[in-house]
Amino acid sequence: MKEKLHQIKLKYRGKKMAPAFNAIHTFLYSPNETTHSGSHVRSADDLKRTMNTVILALVPCLLFGMFNAGYQHYSAINGFPAEFSLFEHFLTWDNFWLGAITVLPIVVVSYGVGLAIEFIFAVIKGHEVEEGYLVTGMLVPLIVPVDTPLWMLAVAVAFGVVIGKEVFGGTGMNILNPALTIRAFLFFAYPTWMSGDQVWVHGAVERTGTADAISGETVLGYLAQGSTEFAYSLSDMFYGFIPGSVGETSTLLILLGGLFLVFSKIASWRIMLSAVIGSLAMGLIFNGIVAAEWIPVYSKFYGLMSFEYWQHLLVGGLAFGIVFMATDPVTGSQTNRGKWIYGFLIGFMSVMIRVFNPGYPEGVFLAILLMNVFAPTIDHYVVRGNIKRRMKRLKTATIHPKVTDGAEALKTETV
Amino acid sequence: MSKDIRIKKGLNINLIGAAEQTTSKAVLSNVYALNLDDFHGITPKMLLKQGAEVKAGEPLFYNKSKENMLFVSPVSGELVEIVRGARRKILTLKILADKTQEYVEHQKLDIAGADAESIKAFLLESGGWPFIKQRPYDIIADPEATPKAIFISGYTTAPLAANADYVLDGKETELQAAITALVKLTPGQVHVSVGKSNTSPLEKLDGITLHKVSGPHPAGLVGTQINKIDPINKGEVIWTVSPQDLIILGELLLTGRFNAERTIALAGSIVKDPKYYTTKIGTEISTFLYASGVSQDKFRLINGDVLTGSKTNPEGHLGFYNNTVTAIPEGDDYEFFGWNKPVFNKISSTRALTFSWMQPNKKYDLDTNTNGEHRAFVVTGRYEDVFPLDIYPLQLLKACMVKDLDEMEQLGLYEVAPEDFSLTEFICISKQPHQQIIREGLDLLHQEIG
């Protein structure tokens, strides 16, 4: 098989379809390319391995999301179990089966549409198929509501990959995170579908208006309506037994994934840490406003503002965004100092947008997209700092004139 | 006076096949050759015709833009072939060596009494000048410039490279002569850096500013030391000499003879008996390679160390500046699911199912496989971990790629040589050719700004 594929590769070298074939070939076998100049040996990591590591970190979230899809659906119909037991109520085949038939199609559509576009672009432009979409394709199913219609998803993925990435030149060149571009497209193109209290639990939409109607309200949704009475305890929020987008609910598994990414040195701990600090800071400010009684209890912001500052990290997509989206190296800040600023502002803005935008009580994706746009500016100023240091040094430079310079100067003087 | 420099950022690449510290004499080569690619940025003008008889130390060609800069023959014999490439560019000069070597005898120089001009003139005429390189641009030094300092790194950190302490051993007289001359060429200091071990013959020399360097590669690269000791600003010039070339310079000054003899390390996992050889510049590599033996037929032979050397073959010749020849396995094979399997036998700067971080002292047998395909820059923050210079490596590389002269200048291109980017190239996840990018950037800047 190895030999056969090698023969085919040689045969199609330079042909139009070569990138498509090579993409599959390099998926099976890491290529036989050797170094030509410069460093004759290279380290073991490549982009595929990097992307694969992120996917590994996402798998627990996906699996949990499948179980949770079923759990939320059945609990909404039958009521939440009084005595919750992980194995009896959550990790059941019923839950998994329902999760599988609702979530897996989203995964298939996301990868199918996205990779198809990547292949088409690679063949047209004659470059290799790059690995960026491997992660994007995995992120997309995890950040959309479980009942997102597949055709909407397909349209959004096509938009996100083409406008968000390929028009800029493909992986490594994009300004906005493609997964969040897809999410933003869904939200702004189909706002009535993508927000509200129905779409978060499977079956809630189609039951609306019938006698069997169930609620699919998220914690943030309750808070935005000024209600602090919901059935979810803090541990529910931490472990993730709450409604929400497929993969964003379990703060525990996101935390583990984040630790794995930091340990494997794939994602930036600076961005993660500073984003957490940023969100806590904004949360504390809002708590302070409430404590100082600057806003009345009947204010429409009261519910979210009075929400305990650190609990912001447990609900909605904040944790997921910080760990998996803000750390995207292409669209984030590229300098280490810039990463601190970038991360902090993401956390800060996320909570701010969340509180001040009760129509859609989730600000993470907007905050990250906004900071994506500002990341080059942050980097610019960080790099300027380095340049300034160099310019300062220049003032004390010891520049000796060339031997001939002196001679020429002398010549002109004598003439 | 001794100052300590501790480098924290970096990565030691431990490879199998380090040269054992015993030296043999390599058999004499029939044909010696100068590879003109070694002299970057020089346009050669031949002084001799094919078939001419030369003595060792006799000029073969000069630099077209600096006519007094002469390049000499390492041995005496007959100039048998001038190998030319496209557009008649001279690639290699081959000299068939005589049985008995005759040297051009230069007038000995009274080093202690000589001034800078006479030392320069002597080195230019006798062929010793090309050993002095300059930054910015990483080219042979411009004799008309006055450097603000001269740097010599006697600390070896590059993988499998010849250990400077060992090859310099017993050459104190020559080293001192060369240093005494170099001190006169700069109004500033001559910075010499050595390892912490106190075994370097360079330590006891007079007239130098000694620095003790410790830390992982690239602590031994002269660029790292310049950046930590006395960074280059726009308009400033720094000269560098590699320590093994000081021996040739010293002997030239003391005896008036250009003796191209050099102790080199033959290393790499392919070599059966890796050790040191005394041989001459331009010697055919097979003269010592097969004395040590190779364990397989297909391998990559490198003129230099694995990070900065150039590709060659057993019929190739020892480079003008190299004191290391490395042979490692070629890696032109496919690996099934190579991109997601856990990796135990390769070095990695991450921990993404790669386990080299668990055994930092383990020695590896790396081959020339790129371990992945060329991609656009994606990952950020990785280069900074192995790049101790106060420079933003990714931003500088991008500035070079888009040929933005202002950015290149401001981000510190004057301070670096391609070899400073060898380690970032090694760990690059996108498999970009960093050293080539920097080389092209330097050439462009040199051409535009001069």
Automatic annotation (TrEMBL), chain B:
Instruction: Kindly state which keywords UniProt assigns to this record, in alphabetical order.
Output: Ion transport, NAD, Sodium, Sodium transport, Translocase, Transport, Ubiquinone
Top-tier EC class: translocase
- Domain of life per record: Bacteria
What are the GO MF terms of this UniProt record?
oxidoreductase activity, acting on NAD(P)H, quinone or similar compound as acceptor
Identify the residues that the record assigns to the Na(+)-translocating NADH-quinone reductase subunit A C-terminal domain, covering every copy: 263-312
Q: Which InterPro entries match?
A: NqrA, NQRA_2nd, NqrA_C_domain, NQRA_N
Domain annotation NqrA second alpha/beta: ranges:
115-258
Annotated EC: 7.2.1.1
Which part of the chain is the NqrA N-terminal barrel-sandwich hybrid domain? 5-97
Q: Which residues cross the membrane?
A: none
Q: Name one Pfam family in it.
A: NQRA_SLBB
Q: Which reaction does it catalyse?
A: a ubiquinone + n Na(+)(in) + NADH + H(+) = a ubiquinol + n Na(+)(out) + NAD(+)
> Per the UniProt entry, what is one GO biological process?
sodium ion transport
> Into which family does the record put it?
Belongs to the NqrA family.
Q: What does this protein do?
A: NQR complex catalyzes the reduction of ubiquinone-1 to ubiquinol by two successive reactions, coupled with the transport of Na(+) ions from the cytoplasm to the periplasm. NqrA to NqrE are probably involved in the second step, the conversion of ubisemiquinone to ubiquinol.
On subunit structure and binding partners, the annotation says:
Composed of six subunits; NqrA, NqrB, NqrC, NqrD, NqrE and NqrF.
Stated name of the protein: Na(+)-translocating NADH-quinone reductase subunit A
Annotated source species: Flagellimonas hymeniacidonis
| Gene coding for it | nqrA
